[in-house]
Amino acid sequence: MSRWIYEQDLVSQKYRILIAMRHDRIIRQIAADLGIGLQDLRKYFIEHLDMILLENLPARYEAALAAADHGDPVARAVGRALYTTYIPIVPPYVMDSIYRHVDAQVKSGTPLIEAAAKGRAMIREAMEP
């Protein structure tokens, strides 16, 4: 019987990736944007994202900021493409629901900043187990 060639528990390796200088900066920005504790976000990323995505986190984040949702200020404020396509924190169907809710609030007169804050709160709720 052959043994595993690689380590099965990748938590320590994933953590080392997340505390690297560029990765740490991105994690801190995402945590601040979503209003999540730094360690809580690291734990979520370790549990839900694979090694390849974690290693490419800075490039994915920078690409999202450069390309995402330029024509739609609501989508950009909520992080629609950022948190589904580039860094898949929440499933697309959940983000679509959040986006529709925030967009409806903005259309009914709620300031974009306030509506987006509620949208980020909904993202936090979607991330809870």
Characterization of this structure:
α1 (about 10-20) packs across α3 (about 40-50) and α8 (about 90-105) packs antiparallel against α9 (about 110-125). The protein has helices at about 10-20, 20-35, 40-50, 50-55, 55-65, 75-80, 80-85, 90-105, 110-125. Helices cover about 70% and strands about 0% of the residues. The chain has about 130 residues and is mostly helical. The protein is built from 9 helices and no strands. The protein is elongated. The longest helix is centred in the last third of the chain and has 16 residues, at about 90-105. It has 2 domains: about 5-65, no CATH class; about 70-129. The termini are far apart.
Distance between the termini: 37 Å
Shape: elongated
By oligomeric state, this entry counts as single chain
Beta-sheet strand percentage?
Answer: under 5%
| Biggest beta sheet attributes | none
β-strand number: 0
Count of separate structural domains: 2
Helix content: over 70%
State the secondary-structure class.
mainly alpha
- The sequence of SSEs as H and E is HHHHHHHHH
Uncertain segments: none
Count of helical regions: 9
The radius of gyration computed from the alpha-carbon positions, rounded to a whole number of angstroms, is 16 Å
Mean pLDDT: 91
Write a concise synopsis of the structure shown:
The chain has two domains: 7-67, no CATH class; 72-129.
Relevant terms:
129 residues, mainly alpha, 71% helix, 0% strand
Outline the fold blueprint:
Layout: H1 11-18, H2 21-34, H3 38-48, H4 51-55, H5 57-67, H6 73-78, H7 82-86, H8 92-107, H9 112-127
